Amino acid sequence: MKAATLVSGRAAGTAGNARHLPLAKPVAEIPTGKLVTLRRKAKTCRACPLWRDATQTVFGEGPASAKAMLIGEQPGLQEDQSGKPFVGPAGHLLDRALDEAGLDRDTLYLTNTVKHFKYEMRGNTKLHKRANASEQAACRMWLAAELLRVQPRVVIGLGAMAAQTLFGDAFRITRERGQWRELGEDVRGMATWHPSAVLRMPKPDQRHQAYAELVADLRDVVAVLADMA
Predict the structure, then answer these.
(1) pLDDT grade, residue 229 (50/70/90)?
(2) What are the structural domain ranges in the chain?
(3) Which of 39, 152, 182, 202 has the smallest set of CB atoms within 10 Å of its CB?
(4) Rounded CA gap, 171 and 191, in Å?
(5) Fold adopted by 7-228
């Protein structure tokens, strides 16, 4: 499998020190600092309009020394309210899949491509709405900063948005799910189903198969991490 393109981004405040990132899409300026500093800076991000209607920024969570980073798409309603990633129905499904695969969530860094909840009102209900290309691009600096700070050995894209951020717009989950790619020196990446996509599948047999594939892909993560140890 062809390696994904490595993109150079310039870390703010580090003149002349461009760093390579396992991202297929460009990042112009990357915030610097420890995770606690990045989280604080992201709280006041105004790079795109999504902050206006969101309750709060939903930044990533997990140890700075995590060997694996799981990247989702964008926060949902429960994440928007709590400020934590993967705590709604999709997060509960992910927790079950992680348990079955033998992965401890507390050892992973979990984040999203976009850090604010985007929605449209349907009556009194906030319905999830996909962030557009410019909103995704504006938020990419935070994902880049997380990647530079954590330096994971394994990067997993959950869903199409995260997968295309890592591997390019031509990537298709239905065609390339579960295939490992080299993302740089000693860094490997793969994309799999987003738990919310599993939940949205209309037929029980489709949901069962996709969930089984998600668990199988996460078990591959366990195996790859063991090989890297």
Answers:
(1) confident
(2) 7-228
(3) 202
(4) 9
(5) Uracil-DNA Glycosylase, subunit E (3.40.470)
pLDDT single digits (tens) 91-131: 999 999 999 999 999 999 999 999 999 999 899 899 889 99
The answer to whether the beta carbons of residues 63 and 109 sit under 8 Å apart is: yes
Residues in a beta bridge with 187? 184
Q: What is the DSSP string of 149-202?
A: HH--SEEEEESHHHHHHHH-TT--HHHHTT--EEEETTEEEEEE--HHHHHH-S
What is the maximum span of the chain, computed from C-alpha positions, in angstroms?
A: 53
In 3D space, the residue among 71, 61, 97 whose CA is nearest the CA of residue 199 turns out to be 97
Return the H-helix or E-strand segment holding 120: strand 119-122
Q: Phi-psi bin for 82: left (phi > 0), alpha (psi -120 to 50), beta?
A: alpha
